[in-house]
Amino acid sequence: HLATSLPLPSERDHFRPRIDLIVFMIDIKSKYSLKNVEASLAHVDASFFLGKVCFLVTGVGRVNACSIDTNAVCKLGETYCSPVLFCELELEGIRVATAQRLLRMLQICAGHIPGVSALSFVSLMRTSDDD
Questions:
Q1: What is the CATH number of the domain that holds 60?
Q2: 12 is a domain residue
Q3: How many other C-beta atoms can be found within 10 angstroms of the C-beta atom of residue 3?
Q4: Which UniProt keywords apply (predicted)?
Q5: For the chain, how many structural domains are there in total?
């Protein structure tokens, strides 16, 4: 399911399936994209930041067209203890690999991978520099 921003409309709450993973998409060429994500973060329950949120940054293949500093996005990931994935959607190989990675994250967050929880998965994604 896709939403352009949060909060989600409440009139369809009873039809909405369980939310296992929230992927915030940020277009590196649009400052509005980052501002929209930052505004939406206030509407996410704090428990989701324990392994059920990630940031997907698109458009990273064109450095000269960037409107957002990648450090700002990385800081967002650090602040919310959530992974940041960078991709270029226009390149099929990267697009497919990113989709597979997101699908695997969703399987983990939904509890379909025995022995791996969303929280343990996020701790595995952290680099040793984060400690």
A1: 3.40.50.300
A2: no
A3: 10
A4: Centromere, Chromosome, Nucleus
A5: 1
